[in-house]
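Collaborator request, handled under Task 6.
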Amino acid sequence: MTGYGLGVKLNPCSLWRALWVTNLLGELAISQEIYAPHSIRVEGDLTLGGLFPVHTRGPPGVPCGDIKKENGIHRLEAMMYALDQINSDEDLLPNITLGARVLDTCSRDTYALEQSLTFVQALIQKDTSDVRCTNGEPPVFVKPEKVVGVIGASASSVSIMVANILRLFQIPQVSYGSTAPELSDDRRYDYFSRVVPPDSFQAQAMVDLVKAMGWNYVSTVASEGSYGEKGVEAFMQISREAGGLCIAQSLKIPSDHKEEDFDKIIRQLLDTPNSRAVVIFASDEDIRGVLNASRRASQVGHFLWMGSDSWGAKQSAVHQLEDAAVGAITILPKRATIEGFDAYFTTRTLENNRRNVWFAEYWEENFDCKLMSSSKKEDTSRKCTGSCQAIERIFWRHLMLKASKAFMEWLYCVWLIFHTRTQD
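Structure tokens returned to the collaborator:
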């Protein structure tokens, strides 16, 4: 795990970037003091930032798409649970309460960077002497909370983008899901740490599995970005060193993809008929796109898929596409069920979980019902009622994300950061 580098001085190049970014952020902060109004805010003596892909990437021109259950809401609730655990234990942070400011990255690095400006607003000195209201009076700005650390992000591309800003303000960042090897460079990412292994570990495991299966001719597919491209790069490097394994072709899924892009990938994979095995480092949305394209091409059962941890055991990647995914081998970091989290999550309701501003949307999507006439849920007319909630809460257990062992390690990592800071 990389260190936080507390107390590291900025070199002249970094100082110049810091001044430039500070000027830019100052202008943004003046024009929009509360930058991310649709976020979770939990009051506390120390505020912890959070970045989660609550929604998928939206279509061109729209930042956010559909709500994400497993990677988004479930992990977000794991953070809320972790905060509750820390705050309820008087021995961890005595007389100090941890608060939170949780933002949605919408699975897009540029949008996440925009949202993350919220975390550094309190550290910027803003000149508001020339700002006046329409009546000539000076405006009253709400002072933003000072974020002392950030949990996230999930995607490596998002963590990389955000880390470049947070390090300029010496804000520690701990990721629960970013596995790109380049994030191990503690000279560039000296304030970044993570509780999951880098992709080089799973790339080695995938090479070992490919050899164990007797495959010597495979293709690779990657999502555009650090996670997909660097993951495939690590797999190809290790396979070259191991020998006895040839890469038929290496394909990339564009970040702003269309349905025809996935169809093209399937056609290209079929150009090498002797290479049925496909190693895929891609987001769960891209995995769904590839599986859907294989179905449209009537090639269900033709390919032998080997998926990285972004596929893992997620239901979202294969929901209603199970026939196209049959026989797939996927990689997943070691994890363990945390019984306390199961009990916490299965008892969340609309009444007792109002702090999660996206929970109502999750409830509608998960239980296929509408809460109000202005609901975004347009494919059903069934209203969410008390009686249906009782039924759905039982079904909920089948959709549960088992809290990974990494989240418990992450909880104590967070505690260590703030315990150290409060002792200084």
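The cover message to the collaborator said: "Residues 301 and 324 are 6 Å apart (CA to CA). Confidence is low (pLDDT under 50) at residues 1-22, 24-36, 386-404. Please let us know whether this matches your experimental observations."
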